[in-house]
Amino acid sequence: MSATRKTTEKTAETVKENVSAFTGSANASVNEGVERMTRGMTQMGSFAQDNTEAVMQAASTMAKGFERVTQENVDYAKSQFETASERVQSLSKAKTPQEFFEAQSELFRSTMEAQINQVNKVSDMMIATAKDAAQPLSKRYSAMVELMQKQN
C-alpha cells in the first residue's frame, strides 16, 4: 500500500470520526433544545391554566358578592316599605302643625339615618367582595414575578 493511500485513508477515517462526533453533538444539542422547549411550553400551558382558574375564581367571588349586595338591597327596600305606612300614620296622628312638623322631622331624620347606614353596609360588603376577589389574582401575580425572577 502506498503512503499516499494510507494518508488518504487515515484522513478519511479522521473526517468520518469528526463528522460522527459533530453529528452526535448536534443531535444532542437539538434534542436538549427540544426538551427544554417542551418543558417551557408545558410550564407556560400550566401557568396559563392556573391564571384562567384564578380569573374564574375571582369572577365567581364577585358574582356571589353582587348577589349578596342585591339581596341586602331587596331586604332593605322591603323593610322600608313595611315601615312606610307606620311613618305616614305618625304624620296623620298630628293634631297641631307643631306636632306635624316634629313628626315630619323625626321621619326625615330616621329615614336619612337608615339610608346612610344602608349605604355604609353595602359599601363594606363591596369592599370585602373586592378584597376576596383580588386574592387569587394577587397570588397569580406573585407567581409570575417569582417565575420571572427564576428566569433571570
Annotation, overall tally of beta strands: 0
**How confident overall, as mean pLDDT?**
87
Q: Gap between N and C termini, in Å?
A: 60 Å
Structural class: mainly alpha
Question: Which word captures the global form?
Answer: rod-shaped
Describe the main β-sheet briefly: none
Whole-number tally of structural domains: 2
Order of helices and strands: HH
Q: Strand-residue fraction? A: under 5%
Protein name: Phasin family protein
InterPro entries: Phasin, Phasin_subfam-1
Domain Phasin: 43-141
Q: Could you describe the 3D structure shown?
A:
With 152 residues, the chain is an all-alpha fold. The chain has two domains: 1-44; 52-152. It has helices spanning 3-92, 97-151. The model has no long low-confidence stretch (mean pLDDT 87).
Summary keywords:
single chain; rod-shaped; 152 residues; 0% strand; 2 helices; mainly alpha
Q: How is this structure best summarized?
A:
Helix content is 95%, strand content 0%. The two termini are 60 Å apart.
Topology:
Blueprint: H1 3-92, H2 97-151
Protein name: Phasin family protein
Domain Phasin: 43-141
Organism: Parvularcula maris
